[in-house]
Amino acid sequence: MKSELFDIRTPIWREALSRAVPFADYLESGDAGQRGRWLAHKEKINLSDSQRSLLASFTRRMNVLVLSGIWCGDCARQGPILAAIGEAAPVIDVRFLDNQAMPEVRDELRIHGASRVPIAVTLSEDLFEVGRSGDRTLSVYRRKAMNEFGAACDAGIVLPKLDESAQEVAEWVEHFERHQLLLRLSPFLRARHND
Is domain 10-186 annotated with CATH 3.40.30.10? Predict the structure, then answer.
Protein backbone atom coordinates (compact mmCIF):
# COMPACT_ATOMS: atom_id res chain seq x y z
CA MET A 1 0.00 0.00 0.00
CA LYS A 2 1.39 3.40 -1.00
CA SER A 3 1.76 5.95 1.79
CA GLU A 4 -0.75 8.79 1.80
CA LEU A 5 2.01 11.09 3.01
CA PHE A 6 3.77 13.17 0.39
CA ASP A 7 4.98 16.65 -0.45
CA ILE A 8 4.83 17.50 -4.14
CA ARG A 9 7.83 19.79 -3.61
CA THR A 10 10.15 17.05 -2.35
CA PRO A 11 12.03 16.85 -5.69
CA ILE A 12 12.69 20.59 -5.67
CA TRP A 13 13.79 20.48 -2.02
CA ARG A 14 16.12 17.57 -2.80
CA GLU A 15 17.72 19.48 -5.69
CA ALA A 16 18.00 22.68 -3.65
CA LEU A 17 19.67 20.88 -0.73
CA SER A 18 22.12 19.23 -3.13
CA ARG A 19 23.17 22.72 -4.35
CA ALA A 20 23.08 24.41 -0.95
CA VAL A 21 26.27 24.65 1.11
CA PRO A 22 27.28 24.88 4.77
CA PHE A 23 27.72 28.30 6.39
CA ALA A 24 31.52 28.56 5.97
CA ASP A 25 31.32 27.67 2.28
CA TYR A 26 28.49 30.13 1.74
CA LEU A 27 30.56 32.94 3.25
CA GLU A 28 33.23 32.29 0.63
CA SER A 29 30.75 33.44 -2.04
CA GLY A 30 30.96 36.99 -0.71
CA ASP A 31 33.60 39.67 -0.87
CA ALA A 32 35.76 40.62 2.13
CA GLY A 33 33.30 43.27 3.33
CA GLN A 34 30.33 40.94 3.16
CA ARG A 35 32.20 38.14 4.95
CA GLY A 36 33.29 40.63 7.60
CA ARG A 37 29.70 41.73 8.28
CA TRP A 38 28.48 38.13 8.58
CA LEU A 39 31.36 37.19 10.89
CA ALA A 40 30.84 40.30 13.05
CA HIS A 41 27.25 39.20 13.59
CA LYS A 42 28.35 35.62 14.30
CA GLU A 43 30.69 36.85 17.06
CA LYS A 44 27.75 38.51 18.84
CA ILE A 45 25.64 35.34 18.99
CA ASN A 46 25.48 33.81 22.41
CA LEU A 47 23.24 30.81 22.91
CA SER A 48 22.36 30.44 26.57
CA ASP A 49 23.12 27.20 28.41
CA SER A 50 19.42 26.33 28.41
CA GLN A 51 19.16 26.98 24.66
CA ARG A 52 22.23 24.81 24.02
CA SER A 53 20.80 22.06 26.21
CA LEU A 54 17.45 22.21 24.45
CA LEU A 55 19.03 22.09 20.98
CA ALA A 56 21.33 19.22 21.97
CA SER A 57 18.28 17.24 23.12
CA PHE A 58 16.69 17.21 19.65
CA THR A 59 16.46 13.72 18.18
CA ARG A 60 14.63 14.09 14.86
CA ARG A 61 16.67 14.96 11.80
CA MET A 62 15.84 18.40 10.42
CA ASN A 63 17.15 19.66 7.09
CA VAL A 64 17.10 23.45 6.98
CA LEU A 65 17.36 25.20 3.64
CA VAL A 66 18.16 28.90 3.98
CA LEU A 67 17.48 30.96 0.88
CA SER A 68 19.80 33.89 1.26
CA GLY A 69 21.70 36.75 -0.32
CA ILE A 70 25.28 37.33 0.79
CA TRP A 71 24.68 41.07 0.21
CA CYS A 72 21.59 41.19 2.45
CA GLY A 73 21.75 42.85 5.88
CA ASP A 74 18.90 40.74 7.30
CA CYS A 75 20.72 37.62 6.07
CA ALA A 76 24.02 38.81 7.58
CA ARG A 77 22.25 39.11 10.93
CA GLN A 78 20.11 35.96 10.84
CA GLY A 79 22.27 33.56 8.82
CA PRO A 80 24.86 33.30 11.60
CA ILE A 81 22.06 32.67 14.13
CA LEU A 82 20.80 29.78 12.01
CA ALA A 83 24.34 28.44 11.65
CA ALA A 84 24.89 28.63 15.43
CA ILE A 85 21.65 26.75 16.06
CA GLY A 86 22.75 24.07 13.58
CA GLU A 87 26.12 23.78 15.33
CA ALA A 88 24.39 23.31 18.70
CA ALA A 89 21.94 20.68 17.43
CA PRO A 90 23.69 17.75 15.73
CA VAL A 91 20.43 16.63 14.06
CA ILE A 92 19.91 19.99 12.32
CA ASP A 93 21.67 20.33 8.97
CA VAL A 94 21.62 24.01 7.97
CA ARG A 95 22.52 24.76 4.36
CA PHE A 96 22.54 28.05 2.47
CA LEU A 97 21.43 28.65 -1.10
CA ASP A 98 21.86 31.94 -2.95
CA ASN A 99 18.46 33.34 -3.90
CA GLN A 100 19.49 33.53 -7.57
CA ALA A 101 20.74 29.92 -7.80
CA MET A 102 17.36 28.29 -8.39
CA PRO A 103 14.57 30.60 -9.60
CA GLU A 104 11.97 27.90 -8.92
CA VAL A 105 12.95 27.82 -5.23
CA ARG A 106 13.04 31.62 -5.04
CA ASP A 107 9.55 31.74 -6.57
CA GLU A 108 8.20 28.99 -4.29
CA LEU A 109 9.38 30.97 -1.26
CA ARG A 110 7.99 34.38 -2.18
CA ILE A 111 6.36 36.31 0.66
CA HIS A 112 3.45 38.58 -0.15
CA GLY A 113 4.36 38.19 -3.81
CA ALA A 114 7.96 39.34 -3.42
CA SER A 115 11.28 37.55 -3.48
CA ARG A 116 12.51 37.98 0.10
CA VAL A 117 15.53 36.74 2.02
CA PRO A 118 16.40 35.11 4.29
CA ILE A 119 13.82 32.37 4.22
CA ALA A 120 14.46 29.24 6.30
CA VAL A 121 12.58 26.10 5.29
CA THR A 122 12.61 23.19 7.72
CA LEU A 123 12.33 19.79 6.06
CA SER A 124 11.86 16.39 7.65
CA GLU A 125 14.10 13.39 7.07
CA ASP A 126 11.77 12.54 4.15
CA LEU A 127 12.18 16.09 2.78
CA PHE A 128 8.59 17.00 3.61
CA GLU A 129 8.18 20.65 4.49
CA VAL A 130 7.65 21.15 8.23
CA GLY A 131 7.55 24.94 8.14
CA ARG A 132 9.16 28.09 6.85
CA SER A 133 9.96 31.47 8.22
CA GLY A 134 11.38 34.69 6.89
CA ASP A 135 12.35 37.37 6.19
CA ARG A 136 12.60 38.86 9.66
CA THR A 137 11.64 37.74 13.14
CA LEU A 138 8.74 39.33 15.02
CA SER A 139 11.05 41.35 17.28
CA VAL A 140 12.76 42.87 14.24
CA TYR A 141 9.43 43.81 12.68
CA ARG A 142 8.34 45.38 15.96
CA ARG A 143 11.58 47.38 16.09
CA LYS A 144 11.16 48.50 12.47
CA ALA A 145 7.56 49.53 13.13
CA MET A 146 8.68 51.70 16.05
CA ASN A 147 11.70 53.26 14.34
CA GLU A 148 10.94 53.67 10.67
CA PHE A 149 8.52 55.33 8.35
CA GLY A 150 8.44 54.37 4.67
CA ALA A 151 10.58 51.86 2.85
CA ALA A 152 14.04 51.09 4.21
CA CYS A 153 16.65 48.42 3.66
CA ASP A 154 18.99 47.44 6.48
CA ALA A 155 22.49 47.10 5.05
CA GLY A 156 23.66 45.02 8.04
CA ILE A 157 26.44 47.51 8.81
CA VAL A 158 25.21 48.50 12.28
CA LEU A 159 25.19 45.57 14.70
CA PRO A 160 22.05 45.16 16.82
CA LYS A 161 22.17 45.78 20.54
CA LEU A 162 22.93 42.66 22.58
CA ASP A 163 19.41 42.38 23.98
CA GLU A 164 17.96 42.69 20.46
CA SER A 165 20.29 39.99 19.19
CA ALA A 166 19.39 37.74 22.14
CA GLN A 167 15.68 38.21 21.38
CA GLU A 168 16.21 37.23 17.74
CA VAL A 169 18.21 34.15 18.77
CA ALA A 170 15.44 33.15 21.20
CA GLU A 171 12.80 33.49 18.49
CA TRP A 172 14.77 31.25 16.11
CA VAL A 173 15.40 28.65 18.83
CA GLU A 174 11.65 28.56 19.55
CA HIS A 175 10.97 28.26 15.82
CA PHE A 176 13.12 25.12 15.60
CA GLU A 177 11.80 23.73 18.89
CA ARG A 178 8.29 23.92 17.43
CA HIS A 179 9.41 22.03 14.33
CA GLN A 180 11.27 19.45 16.40
CA LEU A 181 8.19 18.83 18.55
CA LEU A 182 6.01 18.53 15.46
CA LEU A 183 8.39 15.84 14.15
CA ARG A 184 8.74 14.09 17.53
CA LEU A 185 4.96 13.86 17.88
CA SER A 186 4.37 12.73 14.29
CA PRO A 187 2.60 9.35 14.48
CA PHE A 188 4.33 7.93 11.39
CA LEU A 189 7.79 9.04 12.55
CA ARG A 190 7.13 7.65 16.04
CA ALA A 191 6.20 4.34 14.44
CA ARG A 192 9.26 4.43 12.19
CA HIS A 193 11.66 5.20 15.04
CA ASN A 194 9.80 3.14 17.65
CA ASP A 195 9.57 5.98 20.12
Answer: yes
